[in-house]
UniProtKB/TrEMBL annotation:
Known cofactor(s): heme
Protein name as annotated: Cytochrome P450
Biological role: Involved in the coupling of aromatic side chains of the heptapeptide of vancomycin.
GO molecular function terms listed in the Swiss-Prot or TrEMBL record: heme binding; iron ion binding; monooxygenase activity; oxidoreductase activity, acting on paired donors, with incorporation or reduction of molecular oxygen
Amino acid sequence: MTATADRPRLPFTRPNVLDIAPLFEVLRRQGPVVAVTTPAGDPAWLVTGFEAVRSVFTDPRFGRSHPAPEEASALSDAAILSRPQGDHETEHAEHARMRRMLVPAFSANRIRRLAGHVRELADGCFDAMERARAADGLVDLHEHLSFPLPVLVICELLGVPYEDRDTFRVLSDRMGRMDIGDGAGAALDEFAAYMSRLAATKRRAPGQDVVSDMVRAQADDPSFGDDDLARLAAGLLFAGHETTSNRIDLGALYLLTDLARRDALAADPEGRVHGVVEEILRLSAPSGLGVLRYAHDDVELGGVEIARGDAVVLSIAAANRDSSVFPAAAEFDPDRKPNSHLSFAYGGWFCIGASLARTELRVVFESLFRRFPGLRLAVDVDELEVRTNRVTGGSGPRAGPLVDQRRS
């Protein structure tokens, strides 16, 4: 498979941070799998159909590793989510081993027990919003809620000092950048070194946290080395705050761009929050890219022959808007049932942090409009620039919505 100038190049132009690029729907009408060029300029297959995306997650002939990594297409120049990961011969066994080690730390029961503390942390963020409110009633929701709450939660779960948040915020931003060349890889190395130092601290004084759990696991499994621990912990810290932060931002935008949605949730937060959160998860698409996989064998997918080693980009955003699965797919419908979205992937790749993310989102959106019933946007959603230079997307120049806290 070779790149050609007539193939569309990711990321596609989108109208605003809430809507995905119209080109995704155009391409899906051509077929669930189409040839594209990645932001790095390499050839890849883009998968936009719901069933096709789900099948890749359950097909062992696809993985994150590559049979010849030096020949692999790259998604971007970012240091994460953009190139082959793991050993081709052992990837699936290693993935299963890591999940067995981590799943207990993120179990539904453990997260349910954590829910009450998440509410306390959220209340603290709401207090900060009150204190930060300017004389004109404006406050940056991202700076006082969307960013700090997930960071507080994941720091506590992993055992990371909250006072180090500015360090890993900068490193997270840099390693997800697609426009700083070697600087992204250097940031990942710094991030891993930070986690390695933290692991050394946990060896001397272990706690009841995930990094301490991983340190203990090393005693039982010497093959789980320090580099493995550091990279895995860095990935958990990055994913644990970056993705949830983006979804709080986008969820607020979905609810505040149509005040009837806000008011319906405010009128019955306990009854409606589950459906609201699931629809936020389905529709929110901070990144215009997708999940990278490589074919480990020749595979037929969606009527297309994919050769061994070809890159495959799974567009979760497009799959979650597949009208063959979701009627009126572009509409925000909290009453949608069923809502079997793929925002947390599927099968053996289902996100181990899904329960944690759902808990945080439910706590936020069950409480936000009870605390601030007149909350509204201070800027139009079209004024929020879509970031295309980060693999996780999001909006800028503000990272999230500026809101008006004055009571209506």
